[in-house]
Amino acid sequence: MDEDDNISNSDIIIDDEDDDDQQHQDNRRQQQSTERDRNHDDDESSDVELPTAYELQFQLANVASRSAISAGGSTSSSGGSGSAATDASSRTSRNAAGTGTGGLSGRGAGNSPFHDWDSQSTTPRSSQTNVEETSDASAGNSGAKPSFFFGTSSFILRSRKEVAALINRECCRGSPTPDLDSIMDTLFNPGTPIDNPDNIEWIRWLIAGGRTPKEFVKIVRSYDNHAKCGLVWVPHVVAYRCRTCGISPCMSICRDCFKKGNHTNHDFNMFLSQAGGACDCGDTSVMKAEGFCSDHGINNRVNRDPVPNNLLAVAEAIMPKLLFRLLQHFREHSDASLQAHTVTSYSCEAFANMLIDLNNMGEIMRKVMTRTLINADVYSYFMETPCQDTRNGRFLKANREKYEDAVNRFPNPEPPDEYRDLPALGNKLVHTTLLEEFIFWTFKFEFPQTLVCFLLNMLPDQDYKEHLTRTFVMHYSRIPSVLEMSRDPDTLSNRVVHMSVQLFSNESLALKMVNELSLLHVMIISLKLMMSKILIQNTLHDPAKNFHFVIDCTRQVMKDHCYWPLVSDFNNVLSHESVALVFLRDDNLIDMWFQFLQMLQGMNVNVRETASHVEFEPNSYYAAFSCELEASAYPMWSIISHLQDGTHAHLAKKIINYCVTTLHEWLDSIYFREPKLSLEEMMQASFHFPLHRYLAAFVCQAVTKMGISLSEVLPSRPDILPLLMIHPLRVQNF
Predict the structure, then answer these.
(1) Most-buried pick from 20, 34, 175, 502 (CB within 10 A)?
(2) What is the Cα 512 distance to its own chain's centre?
(3) pLDDT greater than 50 at residue 33
(4) Dist CA 722 CA 400 (whole Å)
(5) Is the pTM higher than 0.70?
C-alpha cells in the first residue's frame, strides 16, 4: 500500500483542541467515570507506580479527580459550550479516571525495564462493571493502563493489548487514523526522551495489533521466506572466510552458516573481525551457491501461505513517523559538539534496537521498513508540511532549521574544475528520502555503531541495498573531511569500512555505481584531495633544484592511517574484473592515479648520521611503509590479477607507457640527469619508489603471462634505464 495514505494530516501536533462534539462526548464519559469512582471504597491511584517522565502530570490529575468526586461530578455537567475552566476540569478529571480506581494491572508495569520482544508474558483478564482488572498482580504489560493522556477518552481504561486491537481495526479500515495519530503524537512528544522505555514498549504493543509481542513475532516469522542471511556483527566477533566458495575476496559468513554448510577440504580460515561485517550466505553475487548453508539460498525458499492483509496494518501506518522520530533525534542534537556525538548516538540506542528487532522479524516486516525509507513521497510530506504554531510544531520547525544549517555547514569537496559536474562531487547535498538523510547523519555523527548496524541489517532487500549504495556514493567525497576532523580516526575508519565493504563487494552493483555515478573518479579524487593537504618538498639530491613534492609521513593523517578506508574501498572495487577493466580503459583515471603515486615517490628520505648517536629513531618509517603497501601495492596486484593472458595485452602496454612517462617527469622534477651520485647524495636514500615497482611488475606480467616481448615494453631512450636503476640499487647498499 502507499505509505502516504498512512500519514496523519495533522502532522505531529501536541496542543490540539477537541471540537465541540468531541468535548460533549468526553464530558458524558467523565460523568460516568466519576460515578464509578464514587462507588469504590478506596482510591487506588496513589498506590500505582508511574513512569518518572509523567509523575507530576499524574499527581495533578489525581488531585483533580478527588476534587471532581467530592463535588459530585459538577465539573462535567455542562456540554461542549462550557467555559475554559470547565473544559480544563473536564479534561483533567476524565484523564484521572484512567489512573484512579481502574488501577494498573501488574503494579509498576508502566515503568518496567526494557524487555525483548520474545520475553513478554500475559495472563487472561476479566471485566466487571466496565472496569477491567487483571486477575493477577504479575499479569505483565498486556494489563497495563496507558501511562499518559491520549486525548481520546475511549482508551482511558483499556490495556495496551486492547488499545492495540482498537488501533489495528482502525488501520485496517484505512486512512484517516485519528486515534493512532493521537497516540503517536503523545509517544513522540518533544519533551519525552527518545529512549523512554515506556514509550518503546507502547510501540511494540501497538505494532502487535492486539496480540502479545511474543505472539506477533512468532506469526510474522512464520511468513518469512528470505534467501539471504544478512546477519550483521560488530568488531571483535569471530567469523569465517572460505576462498573456495568466495567470489569476492571480502566474502565472509557467520559461524552458524559456516557450520551448517559443507566446507570440507575447502580453503577457509576463521578470523576475528576488526571492522565488523555481515554474513554473505545466500548472496550469489558474493559467494558460490554450493557454499550456502542449509537455511539459505534461492533453492531453500519454501512456498508459504500469503500474508494476511491486516497483519502489518499498524506497522505500515506507524513506520513513517517511527523512522522520522529517529531523524528528529539527530536533527535536535546536530549542533552539539564533537565530544557530545557519542552521547547523542548512545541515547537513541534503545530506540534503534527496537527498529532492528522489527527488521529481524523477517522479510515481510523488513519490506515495510525499506519501502518507507526509500519512498520520496513520505520524505516530502515531512519536509513540506507547514509546522503549526504549537509546541510540537515549533519543535519540528527548529529541527528543520538545524538540519538545513548542518547540511550547509558540512564540508564540501573541492574537485578539479573538469570534475565539478559529477553528481557525487557537488557542492550541496540534496536529500529526497528518509534513507538519504539517515546516511547524512551517519557521516555527520561519525558512523555511530547502532545506526550503522540498523542500516546494514536491511541489506537483504535488494532495492534497499541499491538505494543505500547510491546514497553512500553521493556522500562519499565527504569521508576525508570526516576522518580528518575525528577525535578517534581508527575507530571511525573501521566503521566506514564496515559499511562500505558490504556495498562494494557486489560486482554488478559496484559496476553500476562506476558507470552511473563515476565511483572510481570519486574515490581517486577523494584520496588525492586528502593527501594533497600534507605535501612537503622532497629533499632527494639537491633540494635547491628539487621541485617535487611528497607526502609528509609525520602528519597525523599518515600516523592514524586516515586514508585506509579510501584505499580499502578502492582495492575492493578493483577486485572485480569488470571494474578493473573500466579503470584500465579510462586514460583520465590512469592519469589521476599516477599523479597520486607521484606523491609517494621518494617520500620519507632517510639521512645517515655519522657525527653522533641517534637515540630515538623517528616512527615515520612505519607510516611510510604502510601507506605504500596499502595505497600502492595492493591496487597494483588487484589490477595485475586480471591481466592473465594476451586478451588485454594492449591495456598492459598502456600502463607501462604511463609508468615510463611519469618516471620521466619525476626524474626532471628532482633534477636527476646523470646516473651517478655525489658523496653527499650517498648519505641519503628513500625506500619508496612505487613508480619503479609498477613498471617492474607490469613488465614482468606482460612478458611472462601475456606473450609480449621485452623490446616492446622497455623505454625507447637508451639513457633512461641507467637513471631508473640508480635509486633501487641505492636502497640495497644504504
Answers:
(1) 502
(2) 21
(3) no
(4) 65
(5) yes
